[in-house]
Amino acid sequence: MVSTAPPIQDQQHSRSRRARWSWAWVALSSLTIAGYFVGQYAQGTLDSLAHREVGLAANYGFRAWPIQVAFYLHITFAGLALALGPWQFATRLRTRGPRIHRGIGRAYLISVAIGSVAALVMSMFNSVGLNGFFGFGTLAVLWGWTAWRGYRAVRQRDFANHQAWMIRNFALTYAAVTLRSWFGVLILAQIPFVHGDDPFTTILREAYTPLPFLCWLPNIVIAELIIRRRGLPGLRTTPVTPRPPWGFVSDQPN
Ligand code: HEM
Q1: Is 17 among the domain residues?
Q2: How far is CA 189 from each of CA 62, 182, 183, 193, 206, rounded to the nearest angstrom?
């Protein structure tokens, strides 16, 4: 019988073309969100932006100065992490310019460290109360923790684990993009159904409510699927005990 399956070379070609398109999409969406949403806060003080109802300025414009500092640190460094992250997954750049990869990697990890601590502070003063505190707060902790695991793995020259942890970490950074995408979808989905005195405010409030969790939970599932497809180490809660090569572990004390 004659096989109708495409030759292996064709399959590899179409897989790498798909990977390039996915990367381009992730890079473009990351740069757009980082540029637009961070950029809007460069057009005036939080106070003046609050009067023009720009983003979340109204929630932070009247806060004490340490919280406003956390806000600016967060949007600057989280924005930088989002803009830098995609370049770390460009295979050509990683293999041909390992020094550039290391340099961008350091800047990325420092940005995540500052961005996540600032996000944890902001989660206590967020605009949606307890839901935001638990959703954004958990995200902030996981964001910092996965970056730490990725850094520790590369210091131990464990490159497979480094890749896996950095995929998890960037999936969380990308929550900034998925949050705004879900927000748009949930606003559009409600338009035919909401009536009343102030439908616009109701639509915005209802759309924002699930976002503190919805912006990152699906991302970590997708990250685990990517890690598994690439044959990288899965998630472990306990450290791996190295086994002797002959597969026999003695229970006798030495
Ligand atoms: C991944 C971990 C992140 C956490 C835990 C986090 C947390 C937060 C929190 C708690 C707020 C305030 C929300 C509210 O008051 O309702 C916020 C706002 C904001 N974050 Fe993040 N964030 C993260 C990533 C990012 C990234 C990667 C960017 C890059 C663009 C970013 C940009 C912003 C901006 C611009 C705001 C102001 C709100 C707006 O105008 O949309 N964040 N973030």
Answers
A1: no
A2: 32, 10, 10, 8, 11
